Fold:
Amino acid sequence: MTAPLTAPPRFYLLVGIPGSGKTTYARRHLADALRVSLDDVRLMLTGVAFDPAFEPYVVAAAHAALGALLRRAARWRRDVVLDATNITRQRRRYYLAIAARRAIPTVAVYLRCPLDVALVRNRQRSPAVPDDVVCRFHAALEPPTLDEGFAAIYEVVTARTSA
Structure:
């Protein structure tokens, strides 16, 4: 494990459609942060990538883990990252509020990715998210804005692939 932070912790909220590179970004650039991944929680609890019958339990477990980490982030001097799509303002409002209660600044990391690139990347994963779901997420995506309460927004732009 690496050395703890010397600055106050931050809460990084990833924002992007499936296939946009959220997990890759977190692993490369936020490797020292304590990461909560809804995809990982789904696999841990159910053994499958997605089952709507279990989704309430998955979300409850992820929220419990995230809350516990945010409560201890300052004491542990560790950043926390939520690796999930977080594509709507409504979804982000909940996470911003729990971080604010702990006085932890929240930074949005917006993975802006063209739909065609996300679809190609997603199809290379196992299991892949169905194309229609990726398209639905893309249509519903609301890019993060500072007026939501973010301390900062980092925009990571994915270049188109040459095909």
Remarks:
- The CA atoms of residues 109 and 141 lie 14 Å apart.
- The two ends are 40 Å apart (CA to CA).
- DSSP finds six helices and five strands in the chain.
